[in-house]
Amino acid sequence: MISSKSKIGENTILHPLAYIEDGVEIGDNTQIGPFCIVRKGAKIGKNCSFTAYCEIRQNVVIGDNTLFGSRCTISANAIIGSNVLIKYSFVLTDTADLKADQIKSVQGIGDCTLIGANVTLMPGFSIGKNCIIGACSQVRHNIGDNEIWYGNPAKYFKKNN
Question: Which of 37, 83, 89, 110 could form an SS bridge with 129, CB 3.0 to 4.6 Å?
Answer without folding.
Answer: 110
